Fold these 2 entries.
Entry 1:
Amino acid sequence: MNQTDTANGMTKDTCEADLAESLDETPGISVGGLVGHEPLPKDPAETPQEKLIRRLATMLEAYLEPAQVEDVYRAYFVAERAHEGQYRVSGEPYICHPISVSIILAGMRMDVKGVMAGLLHDVIEDTDITKEQLLREFGEEVAQLVDGVSKLTQLDGKSRAEAQAHNVRKMVMAMVKDLRVIMVKLADRLHNMRTLGVMASQRRRRIARETLDIYAPIANRLGMNELRMELEDLGFAAYHPMRYRVLKREVKKASGNRKELVTNVENAISTRLADCGLTNFQVVGREKHLFSLYGKMRNKRLSFAEVLDVYAFRIITRTVDECYRALGMAHNLFKPVPNRFKDYIAVPRANGYQSLHTVLVGPYGQPLEIQIRTSAMHHMAECGIAAHWLYKSESDQVSLSQSRAHEWLRDLLEIQKHAGDSLEFLDNLKIDLFQHEVYILTPKGKIIKLPQSATIVDFAYAVHTDVGNACVSARIDRALSPLHTQLVNGQTVEVITAPWARPNPLWLNFVVTAKARSAIRGYLRNFKKQEAINLGRKLLEKELGARGMRLEDISDARFNELLKTLDLTSREALQEDIGLGNRLPFLVVRLLMQEEINPLNPRPEGAGKAVRTPLIIKGAEGTVVSLAKCCRPIPGDEIVGFFNPGKGIVVHSSECKNTIDLRKKQFTGLDVEWDKQVVGDFSVEIRLELLNKLGTLAKVASAISKMNANIENVQITDQDSELSTDVITLAVKNRAHLANVMRELRKLSVVLKISRIKSETKPKRT
Ligand code: MN
């Protein structure tokens, strides 16, 4: 009953495959069959391609109807003809690759459409066959599956990173619609990784990196542990060949010494369980795969000896009740290490994984990591979402992993909805894929899973996007805590919201979940868009007002004509464009009025001075109206606005030297005016010539603070033994406030000269 697999250090654990078979009523292909290495009678005249197709046929006949196998053959013939004359880098006919992919899929007992898609998966990308042809020949499902795994071809002018991001995004969206897309893609990737050796080294590394960054984590997220481990080890071997070889050698060396202890512990546990009346259980010493050992060494900075000194065992029982009983017996046999027990049966992991984890102190003091689970949980732990096809039965575990997968896919859709471009989406996807979990409770006792170092804001967004958008603080175990507080396993968190609250860009510095990040970004982007639309409307009204007209005077027909000319889809899009500074409002109005435009002088003198309707500036905050950094206008200054394409309007002081150029380029400045009730602090720079004496700066600082102004920055631009020239950035309310501050400073004997800096990009050096 006891089995070990310490002889080889590899991931494939043959005894686990046997185990799966002996415990499960499902006959035929075992979990290990996923690899697709069924022994077949040899025929020396057979080509590799014939051998592969025969193996596939044997596998399919075991679980598909004869008519379905016929359909697979049809797909095979189309694929074979399409790839005719194409060869892999290894020299094999190309068709060997799609057949191998389908063999992997057949090992998972993928349904007939999935296997057909496996055979055809490269025809859209690499041959003349189109999606439409597949649709006609094989129907909607197969065509969609193949299209889902095909890369986008129209990506000219994009960087490799962008192209990769586009393709991943497309694939993930196809996967959201049909999970079989990712099964085909993972099978494709697995076969490519197995045959990676023949590629040039740079390409090999790139593919390995992508596998470790995206595909192995996706397999993990879908609970497909066995496939994930193989992808990781293949990726590790290709990315760090030296480290892989060294680690493999060390593991092999150590396994001889480990064998005895492993057998002893297995026997001890088995005997105890049997003595206590348990039957039909398995105790297995298990090998960790090389990539996970490597990860432990890196992350926890452990040596070979330290990582190899951990022994891992698995106990498999028939029922949940027996799991907990076995746990009690194990704790009774060896002392447990405090705080290392985890109950993933009561609270399954995000991908549906269930097990009890505990660590015991072994006979010679070594840590023994124990997993305890039922055989059904074990199948799930090995093949995750693939169990749906592999075991056909809809057990609790199978439906749990399915529902968890769908929850994840819904999250991905949400992330996709908010993501600005593919690169941002890929970033968010990676964040989502690489997380360790903590479990946090709502006040009503609902458990919410979050990645490690998640904050209150992450929690709030996990509860609901609206809660996230309106959160202001929270009570953690009844104690009031700020939003950036990182949460710890088991805390109860009550989020406090306020109707006026809205997401703050600074939150992006500390949130860790993709959901929170994309929701905040999306909100801010939307907010800017809304502001731009409003501003664009105002600017349009203002420009029409100057001609004594109103927006309502323009007919819909005229507007639609203009939108068509400008290639815009809606009035809002036009307003947004104007608000973002991409289109000058007076030009839009002239187009609207169908006036001839002289390109050299598009804005004739005197045009539209009938009514003055300045744009009112309310303060320094806002996403589409900002104050120029060169001249730093403050309330009371004469100001003028200019468009900054893509960003909106930048307000300068009328005296700013930079406005001369801007006026030329934009034909005129935009009429803007401070709001009468403007409030807030505005930054302004003053230059001071000071006597270089001890305590001078302190006197200056105290005079400034006496006048209720804040110092934001002090820069000494020039200094000798007598004099010092300093530039001070102050926050003031308005012009009058600044004047008072300067008057106060002039009274000081150490101040020789004082002036406000206007429109200088750099302080002058003398
Ligand atoms: Mn392929």
Entry 2:
Amino acid sequence: MSRYLDLARRFPKGFAWGFGTSSYQIEGATKEDGRGESIWDRFATIPGKTHRGENGEPGTDSYHRWREDIAVLKELGATAYRFSIAWPRILPDGTGAVNPKGLAWYERFVDALLEAGIEPFPTLYHWDLPQRLEDRGGWPARDTALAFSDYAGVMLGALGDRVTHWSTLNEPLCSAWLGYLHGSMAPGIQDAQAAFSASHHLLLGHGLAVQAARSIAPKAQMGIVLNVGPGMPASDSDEDREAVRRHDASDSGWFHDPIYFGRYPQEVIDAAGITMPIQANDLATISARLDWHGLNYYFPAKIGNDPHGAGLKTTWDHIDGPKTDMGWGMNAGVMRDFLIKLKNHWKAPKIYITENGSAWPDSIASDGKIHDPQREAYLIDHLTAAAEAIEAGVDLRGYFGWSLLDNYEWAYGYDKRFGYAYVDYATQKRTIKESGRAFADLIKVARAG
Ligand code: FCB
């Protein structure tokens, strides 16, 4: 019986309980069955870019061990699974000929999920752009948005009869700001103009894909997954509070305003001194009605005013207090408040928390178990915040724990463990952690209603 009986009962019946992963982080098999190269395969070859030069091989070898993954999902009591489709498996060159083996893999996987009674929530793009498209300009080039829409059409055509909930992009903020501005993620470029152009073409690709999906599979429920790191003021001063407002404009505002209001925050454009490559009707395409909204939330940010700084004149840091193994601060109340803002300010449709979770330095104890009370505490704090948001009237429909498995944590390689199941990379054995057991107990009570 769950220790969290009262918390479990605060969630409505029919609430989706799921776990998330992404293709590049788990699949491995990067050279198999005709898969093309992705920007992450290439990025990881650049010395110093990823921890020990690690890449998506072997991941959790899920390209071969997907049956084991489904078994773990079942054991956890999941009703839904969020995974992503590797564009370079479907269209190895990004455009042109479809690779039938890649497509067949996802068809078989989706069928197996459905058979197991687990609803598939595929993401079309979780950062693994075909390298061939990057060679032709990547997201800073408008053609990439058109190519994305064509790829979306292929997937909706193949799986639109079986899959209801689709998301277009995962965290375009990270693709644009980390990939093209900070260069800490693939493709590792540091160029403000490229980053802002990328952000627009990512969102345009999203809008075009939503249009394509609706014409191909009218029953598809289309969403987007946006991450946020809302600001908390470094001090009580008016200056720091005002700095938080500017930070939020470039963080959530930059991606939520075009989707919900059909415009970009002008002050961010002015501060960056860039030109937006917007063409007629782009913002109408981007702000097309969404069926659902995916929120990824891990941490807030401590924001201060920096009168001598560049751009938005803000300082950024993690908040004070305990940190996860990523060095990330923790505050669940900020997630609750952001959910309420999604409802009141942006008037988002039904919402899913598509990612939330924490990394800790796990190991297998002498009793064969993985004792991870900190992950469990983080989960409970954030589920409590989610329940509070529901009670405040937010139309929250599901929660996906990040992650189903320990996996390739991008530039951090295999060093950081986010899974509810531990992966021994030498054997690829999966073992559910104690936090996963506690979560499964909670899900069981919640599902019973
Ligand atoms: C998010 C990513 C996800 C994972 C978590 C920890 O930004 O979407 O793939 O790496 O962070």
